[in-house]
Write a structure and sequence with these properties.
Blueprint: H1 3-6, H2 8-29, H3 37-49, E1 51-53, H4 54-61, H5 65-77, E2 81-85, E3 93-97, H6 99-119, H7 125-140
Antiparallel strand pairs: 1-3, 2-3
Helix pairs in contact: 2-6, 3-6, 4-5
Length: 142
C-alpha cells in the first residue's frame, strides 16, 4: 500500500465531515439551526415509506431504538413528524410525515441536489458511476 491508499479512510471521514458541515450551514440559513443530517434522513425515509414503526425506522437509519426515539421526538416537537399509537399493538408507535414535514423534504431535496453538484464537480458520468461501484464494493466488505 502507498501513503495515498493508507489515508483513504481518513479521506472518507473528512468528506463525511465536510458534507455534514455543508448541510448544517445550508439548513441554518433556512432556519433549521438544530437539525442534523440524521434528522433529514429520517424525514427522507418517512417520505419514501409514508408510515413506519419506530423499530423499522431504527433499522433503516442504522441506529438503535433509543437514539431513534430521541431524534424522532425532536422532529415531532418541530411539527414535522406525527407519532400515533398502532391500533393493532398499543406498544408500537407509527410515524408519518406532517404537511410541514413534507415541505421540509422538498427543501432538503433541493439541498441534496446542491450537495451532489458540489460533491461531483469535475466528474463525468462514467467517473461518477465508477466511484459509486467502488464505494459499493467497500461497503460489501463489511
Amino acid at each position: 500500500m502507498t501513503e495515498e491508499t493508507d489515508t483513504s479512510i481518513a479521506k472518507v471521514s473528512q468528506i463525511h465531515s465536510l458534507t455534514a458541515d455543508f448541510l448544517k450551514k445550508r439548513l441554518s440559513e433556512r432556519g433549521f439551526d438544530d437539525f442534523a443530517s440524521s434528522h433529514g434522513y429520517i424525514l427522507y425515509q418517512l417520505n419514501i415509506n409514508k408510515s413506519t414503526t419506530m423499530k423499522e425506522l431504527a433499522s433503516k437509519i442504522n441506529r438503535d431504538k433509543s437514539t431513534t426515539t430521541v431524534l424522532v421526538r425532536k422532529l415531532e416537537q418541530a411539527g414535522l413528524v406525527k407519532v400515533s399509537v398502532d391500533e393493532n399493538d398499543k406498544r408500537n408507535r407509527i410515524l408519518s410525515l406532517t404537511p410541514k414535514g413534507a415541505e421540509y423534504n422538498q427543501m432538503t431535496q433541493e439541498l441534496s441536489q446542491e450537495l451532489l453538484a458540489t460533491f461531483y464537480k469535475g466528474f463525468d458520468e462514467q467517473e461518477k458511476e465508477e466511484f459509486c461501484r467502488f464505494l459499493d464494493r467497500i461497503k460489501r466488505n463489511f
